[in-house]
């Protein structure tokens, strides 16, 4: 078990351990120590989203990296997938992202990429934790690293993203509303999409350090839905705070989540012979109806645990080139090594242009079962296997559902929340089951804590 790392790096309330400056300093020392090998000059790139605490952590990590003899390259505000790309492009030894993704401004997080732009394995994260615990970093004052900023990162990434869009088509004639969540995409997304010819209307592109994800972005697509209708737009695109997620809104204002985006792109790629093994990877959260819809199209689905790093693991094992999450983390491995909201957006826009049909019509072949998710705040993540009564209840409810639905109960890997997902053909059953599970979970978790 890892002590500090969750499913996507280290995350928590800013200025509350472990998201404090001195811990970030040690993280900088640890990542630099791990990737420092040989006598060449080493370098690590650092990017961040727009939350106010990013400055604090950026300086702490830079100090840690330089203190063990590695150079730090500051990229400023850029989406998470851009850091993965720039890490490879600059032949850097590692990449650091300071972001809490879709969380509110008062949270922050730190995650890493290896030299090839992949998120770190569990083993490497354990090594980082071990180095932090030992806290034994001793470097001669003659071998201290230096820090410098490069100004070309935005342009590099935008040009790379545009190059993933077919050269013989463009976005002329499309009116697109873009919701940047007051986050890391506020410059790159409007730039890339408008340069491909679209008529762009941009909202939530005025970050002030406190408004990231605040009632906007991929976790709040209802805002975008209203703007699409008001502006009579062809489509709306909503990113999360660090730009690795994307959610669409069709011309009717209906939300198009990651399952639909994956399904549409998978169907198109399969038609063109571009979908490896006619298979995609999705997590246990993806809708059962979505899986059945793909099966009717001759496309198989492999499921992974939640987290785009685990999706990627399954993709690499099976040599698949498309995978993702219902939440909008989608990996087109032909183009990038991690979930990339902007690349995913362009791939779906490409299908719209190629088919010359509105999104509402293109998505019609995908049927989904009603599904609801309840997030239950918890003070402590009591291991689920210890909640015998809860497990018994879930088993009983699953027997009642049989093949007409699913129940998934798990802890969030990034927040202190118990996530309860119920999927069924009857919405009344869903509401009933969720409340039964939530009530049992609250009571049993409280009971276990009182006995500690």
Could you characterize the architecture of this molecule?
It is a single chain. The chain is of the alpha/beta class and 452 residues long. 38% of the residues lie in helices and 20% in strands. The protein is built from 14 helices and 18 strands. A 6-stranded mixed beta sheet has the order 1-5-4-2-3-6, with helices on both faces. The longest helix is centred in the C-terminal third of the chain and has 24 residues, at 427-450.
Give a brief description.
This protein is α/β, with parallel strands linked by helices and 452 residues long. The chain has 14 helices and 18 strands. It is globular.
Number of strands: 18
Structural class: alpha/beta
Portion of residues within helices: 25-40%
Morphology call: globular
> Taking all residues together, what is the mean pLDDT?
94
Main beta-sheet annotation: 6 strands, mixed
Strand line-up across the major sheet: 1-5-4-2-3-6
Calculate the terminal CA-CA distance, rounded to whole Å: 21 Å
- Strand share of the residues? 15-25%
- As residue ranges, the low-confidence spans are none
* Count of discrete alpha- or pi-helical segments spanning 4 or more residues: 14
Q: From the alpha-carbon coordinates, what is the Rg to the nearest angstrom? A: 22 Å
